Amino acid sequence: xxxxxxxxxxxxxxxxxxxxxxxxxxxxxxxxxxxxxxxxxxxxxxxxxxxxxxxxxxxxxxxxxxxxxxxxxxxxxxxxxxxxxxxxxxxxxxxxxxxxxxxxxxx
Length: 107
Description:
2 helices
């Protein structure tokens, strides 16, 4: 069976908002750079084999997905990508970073 990765509508909307948030809060001087940053997160997910560095989601976060992977965007920011898996099909349900108020509960 061919591997299939699908982003939930919630995640797709979040990515669109994230571009604006990053630009509006001056994390990037150009919207194009903010868009490229988000595209790097998407590229990471799409190229991931979902075999290494997959972690079981803590009980309090299982509403987002049973497993998660971590994408280290830079020295200060890591993204936590929650997903569910059925065979070779992966549904990306939620994403947050270590700056989120929810983050301490993950550790």
